[in-house]
Amino acid sequence: MIAKKSENILLIILRFFREGKCFEAMSCLKRIFSGKEQSLLGLDLVQTLKQLRLENESEACKKLNENTRQSHPGWVELLCSLLQYYMERERGSAQVIEHFENLFKNSKWLLDEQRHEIYQFLCKQVVTEQYKIVQIMKRKAKDSEAVKEASHAQEKLESKSLQIFQEMGREVNIKNMQKLKLLNANQQMKIYFKAFKFDSAAACDKVEKEQNLLLASPKQDQITYHYYKGRILIFDSKFYEASQHLTQVLQECPRTQKGLSCARQVLKYLIPINMFIGRYPNKELIDQFKEYELLCTSVRQGNISGLQEAIDKYRSIWIKRSLLILMDQLKVLCYRNLCRKVWLINQQANKIHLEQFQKAFRISHPANSNPTISEVCCIIANLIYLELIRGHIYLNNEKNIYAITLSPQQPFKDKPGEIKWQQ
Fold first, then answer.
1. Taking the CA atoms of the chain, what radius of gyration do you get in angstroms?
2. What's the 3-state SS for 313-371?
3. Domains of the chain, first to last
4. What is the C-alpha separation between 10 and 12, in angstroms, rounded?
5. What is the CB neighbour count within 10 angstroms for residue 230?
6. For site-directed labelling of 76, which of 180, 227, 404, 410 has its Cα 20 to 30 A away?
7. Would you say the C-alpha torsion 77, 27, 164, 181 has a positive or negative sign?
8. Which residues contact 70 (CB under 8 A, 6 or more apart)?
9. d(C-alpha 327, C-alpha 43), whole Å
10. Helices and strands (H and E) in the chain: how many
11. DSSP assignment, residue 42?
12. Which N-terminal residues, if any, form the signal peptide (predicted)?
């Protein structure tokens, strides 16, 4: 269909909808959501609504082949809700929240095989729009009260978005649309992650309850699920499983600009957790992620001082990525590697005096230049408890000498990623 330049874009979208041309309709919708159709701001809402309804019942519409005609009153209401929402959003008005809810709740009737592509598009648009609204409100704020109102709007929008997805989720379950279940769950996880509500994100995991759901879902939704599942497993300190999920995402990333951006996002989390499995990044990766250079070198060498420097230097980055607690867990791995070095220096002896470890700790951690034997005992006892070292500490009462007796077979665990942190 060739549209006239002066024609209302909403009328064009309506015709695309009726004729089942979802791809063309979505292209026009993307232009509206991206703010490229400023001409809509000059439209009269009442007149536009009438125009859309008349167009939907026109003779031209009725002459369309019945096999391709997909006329539905919902199209008109959806486009009118979109127009109201767009106008309020571009003005930075607080009234936009009500229209935001109406717009996306009006899309439930799209849940059928003929229209599910449009539903999927709108479903993914919810979270994007949620943050775009706040950005526009802050940009157009003229005083501190308006800025405060924008921040308050963000909380309201998060709540509304979750209500929308929960309602959509109920409809999806009623109609048993397997292909859309994971999409709905992924979008809820995305909202919770952005709001730092990681426990709530974990509760959205539908795959744990429905084993076949992952295979029944589109590939793109599977990849998104693996990403969030990997992130959740990091909080549970299940690094080996987390690595498997994130590696799966990395392997599936397409070799496009968007795919490379996705791969970079995954690597921000995969690099630190892989260290628990004994996998350290190569020089090529380190050149792309400079924040991990000192961190990886220090952990590998058992350099406690260097690790602390890397944590402090990039603290704001670790906080932004929700990795600050993981950095503290890397200290445990760093101590393990340092103790292994002491063991190798002592020619892999089965019995080593704790004074040897005390000297190593003193060199590795200048800030604590004189660690006591009690401190050394405490650290090594924790490493034994976490099964990072196989052995036991003993005290010779006659000579008052502390030592550690190591297992003759693999005293240092090969796969630290299997640490039982929650024992």
1. 29
2. HCHHHHHHCCCHHHHHHHHHHHHHHHHHHHHHHCCCCCEEEHHHHHHHHHHHCHHHCCC
3. 218-279 (no CATH), 288-418 (1.10.10.10)
4. 5
5. 25
6. 180
7. positive
8. 17, 18, 19, 20, 114, 115
9. 54
10. 21, 3
11. G
12. none
Beta-carbon contacts of 61 under 8 Å, excluding residues fewer than 6 positions away, are 18, 55, 69, 71
Q: Is the dihedral of CA 348, 336, 236, 321 positive or negative?
A: negative
- pLDDT tens for the chain, residues 1 to 423: 444 444 678 888 888 877 778 788 888 888 888 888 888 888 777 788 777 777 656 555 555 444 444 556 677 788 888 888 888 888 888 888 888 988 887 777 777 656 677 888 888 888 888 888 888 888 888 888 888 888 888 888 888 888 888 888 888 887 777 788 888 889 999 999 988 888 898 888 877 777 788 888 888 899 999 999 999 999 888 888 999 999 999 999 888 888 899 999 999 999 999 988 888 999 999 999 999 999 999 999 999 999 999 999 999 999 999 999 899 889 988 999 999 999 999 988 888 989 899 999 988 877 767 788 888 899 999 898 888 888 888 876 655 667 888 888 888 866 555 555 443
Tally of CA atoms within 13 A in the half-sphere of 5 that contains its CB? 0
pTM: 0.83
SS3 395: strand
Structure token digits, residue 90 = 């571009």
Token output for 237? 């300190």
